[in-house]
Amino acid sequence: MKKLIALFMLSGILLSPVISKAQDADQDSAENDTTEIVEAVEADTAPAIVDDEIIEEDKSFHQVIKDKFIEGGTTFMSPVLICLILGLAVSLERIVTLNLSTTNTKKLLAKVEEALEQGGIEAAKDVTKSTKGPVASIFTQGLMRYSEGIEMVEKSIIAYGSVEMGRLEKGLVWISLFISLAPMLGFMGTVIGMIEAFDAIQAAGDISPSLVAGGIKVALLTTVAGLIVAIILQLFYNYCVAKIDSLVNDMEDASITLVDILVKHKLTK
């Protein structure tokens, strides 16, 4: 029994330094972990500092367009801009004119028929003359030939209808011109810009990626501008064409109805 107690005591004496070292190591490890955690938290919460960091404010759409216009060069960007301004001016003038030329044909025909029944041809002329629009003008020309017969009325309506159609289509040729001219000017600016870029490469004696990319970028800006102008004007052109087609259909239908009304009036007279 004494020998067993002595062995336990000896084992404790021998193992005590090892246990002490292990405890010290555990304590050091815990302290190191705590230090790393604290440093990580401080690193996350600390503001990041980047050398030579430049924060640019977002540019407005107007400023971006202005910068791109300057980058493309005023030599070819200015004619493209002029095409846009003139094309929009003609388009807006045509749109206003066509909308003012729109007439309620059903209401007009009802007034003409009522005037014929109550006051005859002269009363119907007063109704058409006091009404604005190409349909009323065609009616006036037809009523003026009423005394010469229905055939002359039809011929007068057809002839004057062609005149009114020409007036409605006035100005569309200019919009079409600007639609074609704007991309052409853009393409020409691109070709000349590419030539200047290759001249710069030849003068430098080396193909620098930045030099090539910069020259091509500036050259293509004129093409983009020309295509944008053409797309905008094409929308206005198609609207005007659709409006003219609608007015022409109304004129034809109303003219046929007017002839029928005149024939009925002549038969009942």
TrEMBL record:
The keyword Membrane applies. Keywords: Cell membrane, Membrane, Protein transport, Signal, Transmembrane, Transmembrane helix, Transport. Pfam families: MotA_ExbB. Its main location: membrane. Residues 1-22 form the signal peptide. Residues 133-252 form the MotA/TolQ/ExbB proton channel domain. The chain crosses the membrane at residues 76-96, 172-195, 215-237. InterPro entries: ExbB/TolQ_transport (IPR050790), MotA_ExbB_proton_chnl (IPR002898). Belongs to the exbB/tolQ family. PANTHER family: BIOPOLYMER TRANSPORT PROTEIN EXBB, PROTEIN TOLQ. This is MotA/TolQ/ExbB proton channel family protein. It comes from Belliella calami.
